[in-house]
Amino acid sequence: MKAYEILYIVRPELDDEAVASIVERFTEVVTTNGGTDVTVDKWGKRRLAYEIDDLREGFYVLMNFNGEARTAQEVERVMKISDPILRFLTIRKDD
User: Fold this and answer.
1) Is the separation of the CB atoms in 34 and 67 below 8 Å?
2) Whole-structure pTM value
């Protein structure tokens, strides 16, 4: 298994409960697809480097996990079709 890191930005107009449910949903996607050691670090609302969809802020979330390539691909697929996600970046950490 490889170590992965995903940083994603959630729309800023959502309340804390909605953000928590989104984080829980992506954590569940990782675990149901064979991912382990999931850690989530909520960075909070921060200013974006440039406007995305006329928004200047976003709620940043960093998620680390161990898994196979298919696990990361499934999380990316779900993020692509999720409206609350503005942007995401997946990185495979080197050994």
Assistant:
1) yes
2) 0.91
Beta bridge partners of 67: 2
Q: Which of 33, 37, 32 is nearest to 63 (CA)?
A: 37
Cα 42 to chain center, whole Å?
A: 10
Q: Could you give the number of structural domains in the chain?
A: 1
Provide the domain limits for residue 49. Answer: 2-93
- Cα–Cα distance for residue pair 25/11, rounded to 1 Å: 15
Averaged pLDDT score across all residues of the chain: 94
Residue among 52, 82, 68, 65 nearest 6 (CA): 65
Query: Using CA atoms, how far apart are residues 91 and 5, in angstroms rounded to an integer?
Result: 5
